[in-house]
Amino acid sequence: MWAYCRHTFLDKGETTEPEYKDVLGFRHLLAGFLLLLGQIVDAAATPVLGYESDRVSGFFQYGKRKSWHLFGTILVTISFPFLFLKCLGGENADDWAQFVYYAPFVATFQIGWAATQIAHLALVNEIAFDESERVGLNSYRNACTLLSSVVVYGIATGLFGLDNSDKFTSADMMQFMILMFSVIGIGGIFSVFFHVATPEARFSEHAALMELSNHHCQKVDMAWCDWLKEYQFYLVAVAYMLSRLVATVSQTYWPFYLKDTLNLQKMFVAIIPLVVFMSGFFASLLMKRVNQLLGRKLTFVCGLILIGASCVWLWFLHNQNRMQVFGAAIIMGSGSATLLVTSLSMVADLIGEHTTTGAFVYGSMSLADKLSSGTALILVQAFHPCKSSEVSCPGAAHYYHLVMVFLPAGFSIVCFLFLLIMIPIKIGQLRKSLVAVVEPEFTSDETQPLLSSCSSEVDS
Fold first, then answer.
1. CA-to-CA distance for 151 and 162, rounded, in angstroms?
2. Residues of 111-124 as b/e, b for ≥16 C-beta within 10 angstroms?
């Protein structure tokens, strides 16, 4: 909801006439800077939070992953309402003054969001030891994320579908407030359910199981700095980053493409994302089986093909056949879900048994994601043909058409090229794996166990 609705809530649109301003009427570049600020804070916070989540055992004897998830949930709950309310006491203030007002709430929200996401992802690897189970959990996790988005945009469809106007105005403030409080309420209920009903497996239990199954050879987990020496770490990060870029750019600019390029009524700004998320939800449910049949890389290629097909379809859309956007939305939703689930499964494969630093790995992946997404969004806003002084800007329609077609398609092509490099590589078979071999035999005086340690190089 943040990347999608907040941009619509902030951005001024095509004119400077008061009756046609979007809800807050920020200039395009300032709206982009506020989103970039959130991405930078998120990017800076994720590796730090990941490192701390791995290091700290938990707060007040609570599980270490769930402790950080609870911390993030509190920050999100406190800051999120202010992001969709007008500047208190300064509704008519200059854009830069309002930027300063919203910036702390954006930063607090992004830190909280990073804490919840990193802790939740790291928990997947700790409660599921089997590769297939991890793929299944990532699939169901993504499906639930999309289902929550379906609920949000279902509410939005009901709120914004009550009138037939084509533009968002300040009169829509109440609808955004209702939507925001609905999200807070529903999210709060499920967060409580998660903390009450989800047990967190202690690392000591996992270590005991691994020791029983490998009593002659106990693998020592990777330190955070060891990951930086693995080239697989960077290849998987690029694949994850590009799959996230496809989803972020398309989700962010759907509303502008629909209302500016296709001239659809604003209720379609909620309906089309609903279609995208519904198709992604059903695609996510199939991902465990598809990954078992095709493997990670071939499944990823299928996702790239779906994204490419949807971009081609979008290229040929215009006012006369604009209702075909439903078909393109279904294909793009399925392709995005395929890429996201499979890239997360690649990260889980990379981590493997090294779960004690799993949060750092997820945090590093998110760092790449947020920096690239923030850069992409600010560049799109910076090259926008509309200037704040212009009464109208016919070029906006063509501009958003180009953004929705060429950016997802371009990211997919680059991702495919990196995937070709990864074909001979078995993800998770690290070049250097620290191994401690414990022999149960004793020396001649039977007082000292014979302990030998080795560092084995694994070609991959």
1. 17
2. bbbbbbbbbbbbbb
Q: Do residues 412 and 441 touch, judged by C-beta distance below 8 A?
A: no
In SS3 terms, 390-406 reads as: CCCCCHHHHHHHHHHHH
Structure tokens at 336: 């995005």
The string of DSSP codes covering 139-174 is HHHHHHHHHHHHHHHHHHHHHHTTS--SS--GGGHH
Amino acid sitting at position 236: V
Angle at 70 between CA 367 and CA 178, to 5 degrees: 90
264 φ, ψ to 5°? -85, 155
Angle at 259 between CA 254 and CA 260, to 5 degrees: 100
**Angle (nearest 5°) at CA 301 between 249 and 336:** 30
Amino acid letter at 176? F
Helices (H), 198-230: 203-213, 224-227
Given a cut of 50, whether residue 21 has pLDDT beyond it is no
Which residue, chain included where needed, has tokens 């279609």? 275
How far out from the chain centre does Cα 400 lie?
22
DSSP 318-380: -GGGGGGHHHHHHHHHHHHHHHHHHHHHHHHHHHTT-GGGHHHHHHHHHHHHHHHHHHHHHHH
CA 115 vs CA 94, 120, 234, 359: distances in Å: 33, 8, 22, 10
370-413 residue pLDDT tens: 889 888 888 888 888 876 544 457 788 899 999 999 999 999 99
Q: Element (H or E) spanning 307, and its range?
A: helix 296-315
pLDDT tens digit string along 298-313?
Answer: 999 999 999 999 999 9
Instruction: Compute CA distances 400 → 27, 258, 409, whole Å.
Output: 16, 9, 14
Return d(Cα 387, Cα 448) in angstroms, integer: 78
Q: List the alpha helices (DSSP H) in 56-85.
A: 64-83
Report d(CA 316, CA 395) in Å as an integer: 18
- Who's near 369: CB < 8 A, 6+ residues apart? 43, 240, 241, 244, 245, 248
CA distance 50 to 56: 10
The model's pTM: 0.75
269-to-219, 317, 320 alpha-carbon distances in Å: 51, 16, 18
pLDDT at 339 over 90: yes
Task: Please count the other Cβ atoms lying within 10 Å of the Cβ belonging to residue 278.
Answer: 20
